[in-house]
Amino acid sequence: MLKIGILGLGTVGSGVVKILEKNEENIKNKVGAKLKIEKILVNNLNKKRELNFAQGILTNDAAEIIDNPEIDIVVELIGGEYPAYDYIIKAIENGKNIVTANKLVIAKHGKVIFKKADENNVQVCYEGSVAGGLPIIRPLQNSLAANKIKKIYGILNGTTNYILTDMSKKNKEFADSLAQAQKFGFAEADPASDIEGADAAYKITILSLLAFERFVDVNSVYVEGITNIASEDIKLAAEMGYIIKLLAIAKNSDQGLDIRVHPAFVPQDHPLAMINGTYNCVYLHGDAVGQVMSTARGAGQMPTGSAVVSDIMQVSKDINFNQREVQRIDKFLDSQVVDINEIENSFYLRLEVYDQPGVMAHIAKIFGDNNVSLASVLQKQKDNPIVPLVFITHQVKEKDLNKSLKAIESLKDVVKINNIIRVENNI
Ligand SMILES: NC(=O)c1ccc[n+]([C@@H]2O[C@H](COP(=O)([O-])OP(=O)(O)OC[C@H]3O[C@@H](n4cnc5c(N)ncnc54)[C@H](OP(=O)(O)O)[C@@H]3O)[C@@H](O)[C@H]2O)c1
């Protein structure tokens, strides 16, 4: 019998307990040992819970789990940076194997945690940390290991994908779709980490760590959320054959790693454009396998519980058969993220200008002076002195585009620059 201590009995913790109970016999057969939940850490012992436990299982003292010599595997599901990080480190020092779904802790502190685990001859598994129920951590470590991964594109945040899908299908503004996502439980009361892109940045940092075997500082990843996307942008994108998605991108290049999270125009006929609602998707390119795409629900009690329990089972099997999967993280290099200003992209630009002769010529001259060439121009005629002007550029360095936008902004016939969105034509 193997004994498990769970830190946290919220959405995911409860899902893990349910799966371990419901599929107990099946899990025992696959693992070769019975798995017993020894203790569960919660914050508030008096909280009303949907699950019932025997006296003494719930505790609010973390030491009863991480310092408990009976416990083989510690499952960290409290979330946040601290005390989760401290508990993981302490548990590893006490010889416990770790399973966690904590993207923040793995993205920020993975290097220290993996090193500590190696020193203590234990494993750290984190399939639930990226894209909930979508299997991607273990495939990158095992099934795709023969490949050099060139690039990864992910839709890694269900909340923002739900909002963008709702805006797109129902012609709604961001605030209305966010309110709807909150009403249906697809967005938290404080949605900042999701809608501003930080959540996706943690996840793409973890994927690039595995794909490229490089550690990067998550704070150096360029992050832009979806709060500025207007229904007008979505409508114009559709007219030009695109759909707007919040993309998490990681590419390996000679200058370093190009890792970023931002909204992007995705061609309507690309498989990523078809990922709707709360679904997540990872689309990657390996030198041997070619393109691989995988999609599943990226969050929620049972999908994330599924990933966490499969990690618990893998670790249990390894303990039971006296083996340990070694990840060779000692070979991983530290790497810089390429400055966003040096990245080349095509861009969508939406401006408002005074409808008078010469405005186009002034703007075109500024673009020309800054090496920005245009792929298309769309001018909507309105019975109004102010008209929208929409451009798609060819590939241009971000810094050259910014230089030209600064000059365009100061033109007296330009009212304002409404939005700038990267166009990903070569996914
Ligand atoms: N929710 C998802 O769909 C999802 C998907 C993928 C990954 N994840 C990750 O999974 C982890 C857990 O998320 P969740 O949504 O299950 O969180 P949650 O619903 O907020 O649950 C957190 C649990 O941890 C307990 N807890 C929090 N801080 C604690 C502390 N300092 N000491 C003791 N107990 C503490 C809480 O106790 P009380 O019950 O007493 O309040 C609660 O049981 C996070 O890392 C999250 O990023 C979640």
UniProtKB/TrEMBL annotation:
One of its GO terms (biological process) is threonine biosynthetic process. NADPH binds at K103. Gene3D superfamilies: 3.30.70.260, Dihydrodipicolinate Reductase, domain 2, NAD(P)-binding Rossmann-like Domain. The keyword Amino-acid biosynthesis applies. It comes from the Bacteria. PANTHER family: HOMOSERINE DEHYDROGENASE. This is Homoserine dehydrogenase. It comes from Halanaerobium salsuginis.
